[in-house]
Amino acid sequence: MADFNKAFETLKKLEFKDCSNALHKNEGEDGWTFMGIYQKAHPNSQIWNHLDRYKAMTGGATKEQIEHMSELMCNNPYVREEVENIYRSVYWNRAKLYDVKSQKIAEEIFVFGVNAGIERAIKLAQQIVGVEPDGIVGPKTLAALNSYNDKLFDIVFDAGEAEYYESLVRAKKRLKVFEDGWLNRAKAV
Asked: Most buried pick, 36, 59, 62, 70, via CB within 10 A?
């Protein structure tokens, strides 16, 4: 069965380079992102309480202060546990990826789900394996995923991710700045 810890390591490599840049604000977004967790999407997370304390300690938001806060948060076991719990419960467990035999298929769904929404990732996977795309992983979806060729799944899923990202850019030209990163992310898994 697929291993969350391996998938989480893959995801971390895509979300940030090291602990000094795990915390940032993306241009055009409200709120912070830490280890890929976006504040606006998870406003009640304890992550942001820790961030507020670190902001008070460091005194602001210069580049150096953000790097320092990022290091502090990255080395805080409670913050790391909260991040892992969000990824596990909101993405991995919701898609029942613990019951998927192929690590490759599970990671494709997980990583795309984190970036584009887990329901969208599940529906794309369901379309590929020939199950009604309802965004809910049940016995039929699991059976289809577990009997599907993971190399073929990888190719078709990557194409589906690219199509989705390209449609976002066509709809909102301001997102063009993210397109190469999104496409590289799709190919990386």
From this structure: 70
